[in-house]
Amino acid sequence: MRFLAGLLLLLTLASPATAQKQVNVYNWSDYIAEDRLKVFTAETGIKVNYTTYDSNEILDAKLKAGRSGYDVVVPTASPFLVRQLAAKLYQPIDKAKLKNLGNLDPKLMAELAKYDPGNRHAIPWMWGTIGVGYNVAEIRKRMPDAPVESLGMIFDPKIVSRFADCGVMVLDSATDMFPAALKYLGLDPDSKSSADLAKAAEVMKAIRPSIRKFHSSEYINALAGGDICLAFGYSGDILQARDRAAKAAQKREIAYGPPKEGAMLWIDTAAIPKDAPNPEQAHRFLDFMLEPKVAAASSTLTGYANANLPATALLDKAIAGNPWIYPPAEARAKLYTITAANAEQTRERTRLWTAIKTGR
After folding, report:
1. Rounded CA gap, 229 and 95, in Å?
2. Which residue has the higher pLDDT, 15 or 212?
3. All structural domains of the chain
């Protein structure tokens, strides 16, 4: 009897119901109000195993390798989600399990449906633009009339070289940098032409001597701490740097310059990998992300616009009324998106990007 009792206890401990009291979330760094995760666990009894990454390329590689162990991931809609959907890396979302689904902005849902027809596999989380982040005092000191709201601030070698001494960083992402370089040249930012990519690569090579580092998250603290004075990065990251700099012992004024030529519009989404070990818990977590208080708290933390309409009413006017976060209609009309490249085009872009970074 003792043996049978012990065996029954072991079977109970190993049962799926017990083993699945966890959700494995893989998200961008500084991308959700982590104090809310404790609330989720308290309300559901589900532990959140939360880990982070700082580029779409890292997430892409892990998903393609298979058996990532993640239940919820946050890819950018285009081109990454598109490419991953084509590879059948995600399972459809059971919308009946998302009671908060109606909170989502229909306009953003329509934009996302261009990449995920019927919004079957992903929900929008945050959205924003890519532009110029800068230390106001250091930039003015070197160039009072610096074109901070122009792509020329980064891609014109005669301009960006004036700030090399105080530090320049750009995103370590060919997917983000090449379209911006193409836009600077007056070309289609979504071009997959080898000739156009070669021109964009030449622009990057020309500014390479002025770039201190390529990284997709370090520039936040580097700007806030005064280690660099100029960055090309995500709007919300720049605003995080601004807030951190304002609270530092040695305060610095950090500002964001949305490119007047037009900025990339990105939408980060939440999705469930096809081989997610805990799909039920994943749906609970997605519904949690759709709660207005969670979305609002995360926007306050990140400085990004969220896709949750009721959450807007909960935001401080400094966020909801900030044109850097919620661009006015005229600026929004100039935003562009990009589509997925095929395998050969991706290899070409990667080869060019590696050559740029290594200076070869």
Report:
1. 45
2. 212
3. 20-127+266-326 (3.40.190.10), 128-264+337-358 (3.40.190.10)
